[in-house]
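Self-study notes.
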Amino acid sequence: MVLSDRDIKQEIARGRIKIEPFDAALVQPASVDLRLGKKFRVFSRTSDTFIDVRVNSPDLTQLIETDELQPFILRPQEFALASILEKISVPSDIAGRLDGKSSLGRVGLLVHATAGWVDPGYQGHLTIELSNAVNLPIFLYYGMRIAQISFIRLTSPAENRYGSRKLKSKYQGETEPTPSKYYQYFEAKRKSK
């Protein structure tokens, strides 16, 4: 069941859902608007001709930071990672669903390619995947409403919440846009042999 604005505010008041800093004006009928942070990861020009998902490639992206006045410019057909301004925490019986803002989608901005799910137990500043689908640059500003999160109550608390030792969650506690850690699946497989 998706939580209504009333239920979201109750869960925040109880401290079960945490959104820091919290601004009640961002609460929508069944979601909460989230704002864009200052940190971005852009893909670097390298001599590599492919991306091998089995390998840690720390030089694939570089971290950049904007300020309150300078926009981040997402060029046509460009992809970048960014952080949400708010730190999010969800309990073990609630999951989140991240979606873009309709008004931004109408100018060609996509805010997630596949990472729209927020597992029960997640804590941190969500990383979003920005794509510009149009042929003009899009200017993005610190603090602008960039996405929205809705909350879904599970039928029972998760047996293994995100961040548990058993799951070895890769993105728990994010403070800035985090590049892919998919290679860790292959490392774990090699170690288990």
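Second protein, same conventions, sequence then structure:
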Amino acid sequence: MQKIVVPEHIKGLIFDCDGTLVDSMPMHMKAWEYAITHFGAPWNHDFIFSQKGVPSTDIVELYNQEFLVSLDTNRVSDMKQEYFKRFYNETKVIQPVVDIVFRYNGILPMSVASGGSRENVHAQLDVVGLTKYFPIILTASDDIKPKPAPDLFLEAARLMNVPPHLCQVFEDGDLGLEAAEKAGMLATDVRGYEG
């Protein structure tokens, strides 16, 4: 399998978490299905999957609009979160991406910029032993405009003290890749490297 390349001019690395560093999307999908169907709404896997990187309450609002339902955004989001917690210990790394983390540890500054909640992101990184590699971890719990806005990535670059055009972003979601491009960063789609 082809290796992920970090060009020589890159001075900072920014990673999404879910679906990029850790293979947690199947667990998220299971939790979403549980929460949405619990409240009597029809389940649509493809729609939820397409919202990767979006904060959960925003996903519920979008789901309401798309499927003309009236789910309570906080109740559904909270139930999804509670159900998802059951699977923290099943978290596995996506090795080709984590290999980049190991290769550049101590060489380039690195950060995480995720659309997931602070609790989820930290718990998953803790389970797989990656937290120590990221002094900067930004999440949907921070007061920063979410992807596809570039704000999370721009803030990560600022905190790493690296100009945006010298940053490389690793992402598995279309909205995250769009955000990285808007930020003027090198956007690397890790889908296909899951191994």
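Instructor comment on the second fold: The chain has a mean pLDDT of 94.
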